[in-house]
Automatic annotation (TrEMBL):
The chain crosses the membrane at residues 23-46, 58-83, 103-123. It comes from the Eukaryota. This is Very-long-chain (3R)-3-hydroxyacyl-CoA dehydratase. Catalyzes the third of the four reactions of the long-chain fatty acids elongation cycle. This endoplasmic reticulum-bound enzymatic process, allows the addition of two carbons to the chain of long- and very long-chain fatty acids/VLCFAs per cycle. This enzyme catalyzes the dehydration of the 3-hydroxyacyl-CoA intermediate into trans-2,3-enoyl-CoA, within each cycle of fatty acid elongation. Thereby, it participates to the production of VLCFAs of different chain lengths that are involved in multiple biological processes as precursors of membrane lipids and lipid mediators. Pathway: Lipid metabolism; fatty acid biosynthesis. Belongs to the very long-chain fatty acids dehydratase HACD family. GO terms for molecular function: very-long-chain (3R)-3-hydroxyacyl-CoA dehydratase activity. GO terms for cellular component: endoplasmic reticulum membrane. Its main location: endoplasmic reticulum. It catalyses: (3R)-hydroxyhexadecanoyl-CoA = (2E)-hexadecenoyl-CoA + H2O; a very-long-chain (3R)-3-hydroxyacyl-CoA = a very-long-chain (2E)-enoyl-CoA + H2O. Its EC number is 4.2.1.134. Signal peptide: none annotated. The gene is HACD2.
Length: 143
């Protein structure tokens, strides 16, 4: 969901950030990640998973995940002044629904949410890497 949000609600909606280097950073990270992920799934379905694909799936995230997250956060940060200036997606009071929404504040909350979420997901993948690749190494010893 974060990818849809970042592409549509930030990058598509704030034209000024589309030429930022941070966009390239997260797009490259996402692209490499998806190529590895779907190669892994394809070879797994064919019951012929090369070790290199398995290794890439459980190792390259060490660089790609922080790279993607950095690109995402830098892109949101670059969008903030434009969102505030234009009042993009914000609803102010008074209105007939007696409801307000500040998209600028929402983006800041999204950025803050990365603080507890990123380490949890990252260390989960570290744990998965240790479990999957150490199992592979043990299996190779017995062959």
């Amino acid at each position: 969901m974060s990818r849809v949000f970042l592409i549509w609600a930030v990058t598509h909606s704030v034209k000024e950030v589309q030429s930022e280097d941070s966009v390239l950073l997260f797009v490259i990270a996402w692209t490499i990640t998806e190529i590895i992920r779907y190669s892994f799934y394809t070879f797994s379905l064919l019951n012929h998973l090369p070790y290199l694909i398995k290794w890439a799936r459980y190792t390259l995230f060490i660089v790609l995940y922080p790279m993607g997250v950095s690109g995402e956060l830098l892109t949101i940060y670059a969008a903030l002044p434009f969102v505030r200036q234009a009042g993009l997606y914000s609803i102010s009071l008074p209105n007939k629904y007696n409801f307000s929404f500040d998209y600028y504040a929402f983006l800041i909350l999204i950025m803050i949410s990365y603080i507890p979420i990123f380490p949890q997901l990252y260390f989960h993948m570290i744990h998965q890497r240790r479990k999957v690749l150490s199992h592979t190494e043990e299996h190779k010893k017995f062959e």
